[in-house]
Every structure is written in structure tokens, then in C-alpha cells.
Design a protein that fits this description.
about 40% helix, single chain
């Protein structure tokens, strides 16, 4: 038996002893495969994800179906407000119903 083989066996034995004494060490020392990440589910009836820089569609679900734009208008209004500097989001603005 060579010194290299003896050293490898001694390290393996020492490692095995350490692993038996500490479950945390065993968990940290044991090589594991990364767990696969669950794929996100999309509950919306339709969606489209576009790369802003290239304009390429990255993902789509029924993207060609015509839909009302109400939600899109709400998102765009919120985006404009949040992108505008100096806006006081805590300020209340009274709105009166037209006669």
C-alpha cells in the first residue's frame, strides 16, 4: 500500500467518522444534485413576455386572442405614476362626480 493510498483511506475514514458524528456535516459534505425548481404556473387567460431590448417574444399564452384592455390601462397608469419623479403617493386628491 502506498502512502497516497493510505492517506486517502485515512481521510475517508476520518471523514466517515465525522459524518457519523454530525448530521450537519454529513449534509454539507454529501454532494447532492440541485433540486429542480418548479415551473411557475400562469393563471391568466393570456399573456406575453417580451424582451425590451430586442423586442423578441420570450413566452406567450394565447397572445393573439383579442381581449379588453382595462387591466393593461390600469398597469400603464400605475407605471406612469411610479416612473414620474416628485409624485407624492400619500397625497389624496378629491374627485367630484360631474353633474
Amino acid at each position: 500500500m502506498t502512502v497516497g493510498t493510505l492517506t486517502k483511506r485515512a481521510v475517508a475514514l476520518a471523514g466517515g467518522t465525522l459524518l457519523a458524528l454530525s448530521p450537519l456535516t454529513a449534509q454539507a459534505a454529501t454532494p447532492t444534485q440541485p433540486e429542480p425548481q418548479p415551473q411557475p404556473t400562469l393563471a391568466a387567460k393570456g399573456a406575453s413576455l417580451v424582451d425590451d431590448a430586442s423586442g423578441n417574444t420570450l413566452s406567450a399564452k394565447d397572445a393573439d386572442t383579442v381581449r379588453p384592455i382595462a387591466s393593461t390601462a390600469k398597469i400603464m397608469a400605475a407605471s406612469v405614476v411610479l416612473d414620474t419623479t416628485g409624485v407624492d403617493l400619500e397625497r389624496q386628491v378629491p374627485v367630484q362626480q360631474a353633474p
